[in-house]
Design brief:
Low-confidence stretches: none
Radius of gyration: 13 Å
Number of strands: 11
Mean pLDDT: 97
Length: about 110
C-alpha cells in the first residue's frame, strides 16, 4: 500500500519553530518528487515546498528563508523545518507524491 504519514505538528508561539516529518512506504521513494502543501482554516490548499528526486528544492516565495525542506532516502522520510513561524502559518500540513496524500499534521501558531 502506498502511504505517507506526517508527524511533528503542534502548537507553538509566533516566532517559534517546528519540524515536520513525512514517512513514506509502498512506493519508490528515492525516485519520487515530494511536496508539502498546507490548508489554513477556511482556506484552500496552498503549495509550500517541493523536493525533487534529483535534489532540486523549491519554495513558495513567502516561505523562503524560514522553511527548509530535506529528505533522507535511507529512511524514506522528508522533513520540513519551519522557523520564525507566524500566525498565518497555522494550517494542516500535508505531504504528497502525485496522487498519494498523507492524513496531515496540524500546526497552530499563537500570537
Amino acid at each position: 500500500e502506498e502511504k505517507l504519514v506526517e508527524s511533528g505538528g503542534g502548537m507553538v508561539q509566533a516566532g517559534g519553530s517546528l519540524t515536520l516529518a513525512c514517512a513514506a512506504s509502498g512506493f519508490s521513494f528515492s525516485t519520487s518528487d515530494i511536496s508539502w502543501v498546507r490548508q489554513g482554516p477556511g482556506k484552500g490548499l496552498e503549495w509550500v515546498s517541493s523536493i525533487r528526486a534529483n535534489g532540486q528544492i523549491l519554495y513558495q516565495e513567502s516561505m523562503k528563508g524560514r522553511f527548509t525542506v530535506s529528505r533522507d532516502n535511507n529512511k524514506k522520510t522528508v522533513y520540513l523545518q519551519m522557523t520564525r513561524l507566524q500566525v498565518e502559518d497555522t494550517a494542516t500540513y500535508y505531504c504528497t507524491v502525485q496522487e498519494i496524500w498523507g492524513q496531515g499534521t496540524q500546526v497552530t501558531v499563537s500570537s
